[in-house]
Amino acid sequence: MKIPWFEPLIDKSDAEAVKRQALTGFVNEGAANRAFEQILRDYFKVPYAVTTPSCTVALTLTLMALGIRRGDTVLVPDVTFIGTANAVRLAGGEPILVDIDPADFTMDPEDAVRRLQPSTRVILFVHLNGRSGNIGAFRPLAREKGLLRMEDAAEALGSRNAEGFLGTLSEAGCFSLAPTKIITSGQGGFVLTRRQDIRDQLVRLKDHGRLSRESDVHAETGFNFKVTDLQAALAISQFSKLKDRIERSRAIDQRYREGLADIPDLEFTARNLEGGFLMWPDFKCQRRDELVKHLRNHEIILRPFWPALHTQPAYATQGKFPGATEACNHACWLPCSPGITDRQIDRVIASIRSFFGKG
To answer: Tens digit of pLDDT for each residue in 77-88?
Structure first.
């Protein structure tokens, strides 16, 4: 049978949760969303959480809440899902691409300083695949230049470093509940923040410019980015499984690394996670594309890293990005669905070993 790179795991308890919500007759954004936001506040120990239809929407609305306007620029790592950069443009700004550290795939602080512009307002740090990188190095830069900091934690739900949960270490953190994440609500996301002004502006922006649906007075222009209670019911059910899935993610990564440890052609990048975890086991390989093709012939799907943003037609940028080029040409993610079995992992390992003559 085919082994996909990643597919969501939705069980009977999840289906029952959605069914119960549907049978209440209320499917708009309401009590289930408020309940999920309370779960998030309790888990992450933050005062405010706001649900959104996706992480891209979360990023866009947060940038707008931080005051990003046309002519402003935002520092964005060159290696991230394109939605990060899209959110900057949707908010009215322009992303300034920054190279990454190839050791952990996160934004390079030194390159960020080099690429800073007078128009730069925000540093948008991406916790790629659950890694925090050297996020602390950006605090002095932000203080010196008067910059705001925010986090794209789409791939870091429940991951942390020595300071705390990723997505809670700046003005605001944005998360994803898409089907390729450790838990899912189909599509969905949320924002965490300790600032009430950001929370209030997010609420206004997502509901036509009003702070409460009890009022028909719309103080400003807003959107319709509400989240259905059907999605919230699924998110609540899935969130109850997060602890076990984090432990399973760690076990999956460990099994791959032990099974492939003697293959010098594979470089398992740093796992200095300080209590965090990788949602998707990653490695670098000079023969990655050959390996991807070999495994596809055996009904196994590896997921190469996305193309670096500076190579995308929508964000084509002149200049050198050696860290991003190295990562995006040679790195990939191993199959790691929440429901993957040890037997399937061993099949992947055997196929990779066969490719390198280690069968």
So the answer is: 999 999 999 999
Please tell me the distance from the alpha carbon of residue 333 to that of residue 120, in angstroms, as a whole number: 32
DSSP 309: G
pTM of the model: 0.96
How far lies 289's CA from each of 153, 236, 282, 292, 317, in Å? Answer: 28, 38, 14, 5, 24
23-40 confidence digits (pLDDT tens): 999 999 999 999 999 999
Domain locations in the chain as residue ranges = 12-239, 242-355
Cβ 248 vs Cβ 326: under 8 Å:
no
C-alpha to C-alpha distance for 205 and 218, rounded to whole angstroms: 10
How large is the average pLDDT for residues 88-108? 96
CATH fold of the domain at 242-355: Aspartate Aminotransferase, domain 1 (3.90.1150)
Q: Which residues of 64-82 are buried (b: 16+ CB within 10 A; e: fewer)?
A: bbbebeeebbbbbbbbbbe
pLDDT in tens, 228-277: 999 999 999 999 999 999 999 999 999 999 999 999 999 998 887 788 99
Q: What gap in Å lies between CA 252 and CA 231, rounded to an integer?
A: 28
Gyration radius of the chain over CA positions: 21
What six digits make up the tokens of 166?
Answer: 């990723």
Domain 12-239 is found in CATH 3.40.50.10260: no
